[in-house]
Write a structure and sequence with these properties.
The complex is a heterotrimer of chains A (about 270), B (about 375) and C (about 400). The longest helix of chain A is centred in the C-terminal third of the chain and has 16 residues. With about 270 residues, chain A is an alpha/beta fold. The radius of gyration of chain A is 19 Å and the shape is globular. Chain B is mostly helical and about 375 residues long. Helix content of chain B is about 65%, strand content about 0%. Chain B is built from 15 helices and no strands. Chain B is flat. Chain B starts with about 25 loop residues before the first helix and ends in a 5-residue tail after the last helix. With about 400 residues, chain C is an alpha+beta fold. In chain C, helix 7 packs across helix 9. Chain C is globular and about 75 Å long. Classes of the chains: A alpha/beta (about 270), B mainly alpha (about 375), C alpha+beta (about 400). Chains in contact: A-B, A-C, B-C. The interface between B and C is large, with 57 and 54 residues.
């Protein structure tokens, strides 16, 4: 393993000042904090999944998180909307600290949208009902208004004509776009993507990524766990590499791909970028 | 690789048309050969099975149809020495007693009330079982709330409304069998759902309580439950409160079937992938909404066949109430068969054949429905 | 690292209102539940105590030592009305229940597996016949079937004088089924010992054959050798004893008298009807379990085994059956439990099982409802829980190792 050739040229060291020169970084420097994690730790039984994770996400920032499987990247973003409970450290989302308080958890979940690897659409509801469910029951929105908003987002993800079908009748790519629309209907301030393209057939990856790029262009704060390095290069402000529950490296995509600093990052990149 | 005489490249110029198979593969003769006489052992089995059929079917037909007596007013119609021919089933007996089998001793002039009850029941059951029926939520409200209340008022009577009261001791026959089954299902479904949710709760005491409750009722025979309801229920109530003879087994049956229902529903809950809860959580739905809007609708849909099967079991089990002295359908058969006016050799067998037919038609019909639902659910959510 | 800590790490997290703390809520729900259950139990127990006091019913389990004073006509253990106690009556009921259950389970399993396999037969007639059997029998209440066997079939049999006879030693009439009774001589112990040696020998040979196959690849005829050992050794022992002039097993044949049959082994109609009914009913359910189990093994498994060159026999034995048993055993056990619980329907036809003797007669005579119901239910619960426990162990052992 250690002797396997690493294709990326070995540079003396990564330049820590690369980030500020990036245009998006200057745009973000003054932006308020959207999410901050401080020394977050989590264990599954005796297994230490997250180890002292520190991360600050600015409003409008697009972050791509990558790393080998089991490195804790999914767990990390699932902690942000409390699908997983962290056991030590602090997580503050949009000024609200995540505690055991059910009210705060509800508040945070209203502000944070999430897209899953396996879509998790509700198969017993139509596409439109999937989208209007949360606005109606959580935001107490009138049905007509919720439907109007849902149609607007379904149009944006380019499937307004499928609104009255059931998820089972759509292709994987269409389902994932519905899932994105469903999240957007809650007008979230932050979007989390947990490997949104991993369960898709290759020919459907692009339609989902295009939707995500569109979202990024509108200035949405995004945290994406993905192995789509082309996407990372195109939209990310920052790429974070995780391994064994820790953030190993974090840099602008340009520097990250050109000059990965850490041994493990290089090994990882050599394995996924053939 | 040796290509031999075959050219390396080949492009088809014309398509090969489909043609009929040789007669060895299709046709009735081929079918017989393949299905019945494919090997000597198979042929032997075919012959053995034919022998069984020859042994069972003709006597059965002779008893049920050919030698049967269809009309008559008393035992003389069904006595071979009187009518001078072998006598099969004495259907005249059933025809004569049919009102007793259906209503028990329910007063004759009030029998329109059970009839209305049957109609109300048919509406409710149809509404629940027909998946594409309109307003199924209203159907559920009707079936679980309106229908039981109206039925009780109708059957027991409300003197204030001009319905004279009819004591439950006069109720009987299929009426009671259906009432016991319906009370079982109407009470056990909500209770069973609660228990199933409790058994999956993360609160240890709630979980423990539900596990003990469920496993207790599932561990004991129904007949002991009925005995217990009969002798212990009055004990647990204050001395001056009396509890109706019909209500006692109903309580026992409701608790008993709730435990089985809980396990059926739990199976459905377990089949819902965790991602459904997570998806609902990420949208900010509260636990109550997650359960009501996402998990339960899907879980209950999956378990419809299971619920129908539990209902079949319950429907058959209701016959046990006859052992603790309730005049259900079986009990009316048992008391009619010893009626001296109908003392004839085949009356007992006829009574049982009629009862078997009644239960078979209901249970088989329901099991067909469950099978149909299973297949429809397996076909997926695409409609 | 480009991440900065925006806040003071030592700052304490904000306080959680207990109203919105899931832990607090959970505890509150549980305490409420405990209180509610406790309250209901307390009221019920209070009422029961008062009602029993008013009815002057004794309490406690002392009645088990009192003389019963009623008779039971079919018992496995000795019981006499004059001297036996309620405790013995309980044991009589329990042994009768267990006996009926064990016999019913054995017969139902044999019949059920036969019908279940027939349900999948390539032979259309056999398949249809099996389907009709299953559909008819499982859709008619067991109670009705028991009444049918007991009232309609057995009661319409001829009287003892005109018994149906099968050969000269098996008789069937209104009073039941008469079979020859085996009488074991003093030296008969040699037979079970021979059988045991045969069984142990077969197991040992199987182990040896497995090792031999693992070592050399040669397969030894385990089935033939096993049959020879298990059947041959007892026969040999019988022959040796017979040569020595000792008849190890004698049969006492029932003899037809003028009004009754004497001798032999009499199976009462209640017992026959109960075993018949339970067997025929439960077999229909077992057949479905077996069918489902075999069908659960995907066709791909058979195809893969055949593609590897395994013959149909080994394919069945090494690939299909082990997987099917995994699916069959748990529901099969629950069918066995159902049969045991259903044997309590004996009360409807008067067979003296646990419920009929104890919950029926003893309860009526003593009036000690709470104790009698508690003991009876405890017996069935124990049987169920022990079976469930064993089943869990089995499931854990055979569970497929999967991620």
């Amino acid at each position: 393993m250690a002797s396997s050739p690493v294709p990326t040229p070995t540079l003396p060291e990564a330049d820590p000042d690369l980030a500020p020169r990036n245009t998006s970084a200057t745009r973000l420097a003054s932006a308020p904090t959207a999410v901050s994690l401080e020394r977050v730790n989590k264990w599954y039984g005796a297994f230490h999944v997250l180890r002292d994770v520190d991360l600050t996400v600015r409003k409008g920032e697009r972050i791509v998180i990558c790393g080998p499987s089991g490195s804790g990247k999914s767990t990390l973003i699932r902690c942000i909307n409390r699908l997983e409970e962290h056991q030590a450290g602090r997580i503050v989302v949009d000024g609200i600290e995540l505690t055991n308080d059910l009210k705060r958890i509800d508040e945070i979940r209203r502000e944070v949208g999430m897209v899953f690897q396996h879509f998790n659409l509700f198969p017993h509801l139509t596409v439109l009902e999937n989208c209007t469910l949360a606005p109606i029951w959580v935001k107490k929105m009138p049905k007509a208004e919720a439907e109007a908003i849902a149609m607007q987002y379904l149009t944006r993800v380019k499937i307004p004509n499928q609104a009255h079908k059931y998820p089972g009748q759509l292709s994987g790519g269409q389902q994932q776009r519905v899932a994105i629309a469903r999240s957007l209907c809650m007008a979230p301030k932050i979007m989390l993507f947990d490997e949104p393209t991993s369960a898709l057939d290759p020919e459907m990856v692009k339609e989902v990524l295009d939707t995500m790029v569109g979202l990024a262009d509108e200035g949405m704060t995004m945290l994406c766990v993905t192995h789509e390095m082309g996407f990372a290069r195109q939209v990310a402000d920052r790429v974070i590499f995780m391994d064994e529950g820790q953030i190993v490296e974090s840099n602008t995509p340009e520097a990250f791909f050109r000059a990965p600093a850490h041994e493990r990052t290089r090994l990882f990149l050599s394995q996924i970028l053939h | 690789m040796t290509a031999g005489a075959q050219p390396l490249t080949f492009v088809r110029r014309e398509a090969v048309p489909a043609s009929a198979p040789p007669s060895l593969v299709a046709g009735p003769l081929a079918w017989l050969r393949r299905n019945l006489f494919s090997s000597p052992a198979n042929a032997v089995m075919t012959l053995a099975a034919l022998a069984v059929i020859a042994l069972v079917v003709p006597p059965l037909l002779r008893f049920l149809v050919i030698d049967a007596v269809w009309t008559g007013q008393n035992r003389d119609a069904c006595r071979p020495e009187v009518i001078g021919r072998p006598v099969g089933a004495c259907w005249a007996f059933v025809a004569n007693k049919i009102n007793y089998f259906v209503y028990g001793s329910y007063p004759i002039e009030e029998r329109w009330r059970p009839n209305v009850f049957f109609a109300l029941m048919a509406v409710g059951v149809g509404w629940m079982l027909w998946l594409d029926a309109p307003k199924r939520a209203w159907g559920a409200l009707y079936f679980f709330v309106v229908f039981p209340v109206v039925s009780y008022a109708l059957l027991a009577g409300v003197p204030a409304l001009g319905l004279s009261s009819v004591p439950t001791s006069l109720w009987g026959g299929m009426l009671v069998t259906l009432i016991v089954s319906l009370v079982g299902i109407v009470a056990s479904l909500p209770l069973g759902i609660l228990l199933a949710l409790g058994r999956r709760s993360r609160l240890p005491i709630v979980r423990l309580f539900c596990v003990i409750f469920i496993e207790f009722w599932r561990g004991v025979p129904l007949i002991t439950v009925l005995f217990m309801a009969n002798v212990m229920l009055p004990l647990f109530l204050p001395g001056d409160v009396t509890i109706d003879r019909l209500v006692r087994p109903l309580v026992g049956i409701a608790l008993f079937s709730a435990a089985y229902m809980a396990e059926t529903v739990r199976g459905g809950l377990q089949a819902i992938p965790r991602g459904q809860t997570e998806g609902a959580m990420s949208l900010g739905l509260s636990p109550w909404h997650r359960m009501r809007l996402i998990i339960l609708p899907q879980a209950l849909r999956i378990v419809i066949p299971g619920i129908v099967n539990s209902f079949i079991a319950l429907f058959k089990d209701t016959s046990l109430v006859s052992i603790v002295g309730i005049f259900d359908f079986i009990r009316t058969i048992e008391s009619a068969r010893v009626d001296p006016t109908w003392a004839a050799p085949t009356v007992v067998m006829t009574g049982y054949a009629f009862a078997a037919l009644f239960y078979f038609v209901f249970c088989f019909g329901m099991s067909r429905y469950a099978r149909f639902m299973e297949r429809r659910l397996a076909a997926g959510q695409t409609r | 690292m480009p991440t900065q800590l925006p806040a003071d790490p030592a700052s304490r997290p904000p306080r959680v209102s207990p109203l919105y703390d899931p832990r607090f809520r959970g505890a509150a729900y549980q305490i409420l539940l405990l209180l509610a259950v406790g309250l209901v139990a307390w009221i019920a127990i209070g009422n029961a105590a008062e009602n029993l006091r008013n009815a002057r019913v004794a309490s406690g389990f002392g009645f088990l030592n009192n003389t019963a004073g009623f008779d039971v006509n079919q018992t496995v253990i000795p019981f006499t009305a004059a001297t036996s106690t309620y405790g013995t009556a309980f044991l009589v009921g329990l042994t009768n229940t267990l006996m009926v259950s064990v016999i019913g389970i054995v017969l139902a399993t044999i019949l059920g597996f036969t019908v279940g396999v027939a349900r999948l037969s390539p032979n259309w007639i056999v398949r249809t016949l099996a389907t009709v059997y299953v559909e008819v029998l499982r859709n008619i209440p067991l109670l009705l079937q028991l009444l049918f066997w007991y009232v309609a079939v057995l009661a319409s049999l001829p009287s003892a004088r005109d018994s149906y006879a099968l050969g000269t030693s098996v008789f069937l009439n209104q009073r039941g089924l008469y079979l020859p009774r085996p009488l074991l001589a003093a030296d008969a112990w040699a037979l079970p010992i021979a059988l045991a040696i045969g069984l142990v020998g077969t197991l040992a040979f199987r182990t040896y054959a497995k090792r031999e196959q693992a070592r050399t690849g040669r397969r030894l005829p385990v089935l033939t050798v096993g049959l020879v050992l298990i059947l041959g050794l007892p026969l040999l022992a019988y022959g040796v004893l017979a040569l020595l002039g000792i008849a190890p097993v004698a049969l006492e044949y029932p003899v037809k008298g003028t009004f009754n049959l004497r001798g032999g082994m009499q199976l009462y109609p209640e017992f026959v009807a109960l075993v018949l009914g339970l067997t025929v009913y439960t077999a229909a359910f077992i057949a479905e379990v077996v069918r489902a189990g075999i069908q659960a093994v995907s066709k791909g498994q058979t195809e893969a085994a055949r593609a590897l060159g395994l013959q149909p026999g080994p394919t069945m034995r090494l690939v299909v059956i082990p997987q099917a048993m995994r699916v069959i055993v748990p529901p099969l056990t629950s069918q066995f439990l159902n049969l045991t619980k259903n044997s309590s329907l004996a009360v409807a036809i008067g067979y003296p099982d646990l419920v009929q003797v104890f919950m029926g007669t003893v309860l009526n005579q003593t009036g000690q409802a709470v104790e009698v119901v508690a003991i009876t239910m405890a017996v069935y619960l124990t049987i169920s829980l022990v079976t469930a426990f064993v089943m869990n162990l089995y499931n854990r052992r055979v569970a497929l190792i999967e991620r």
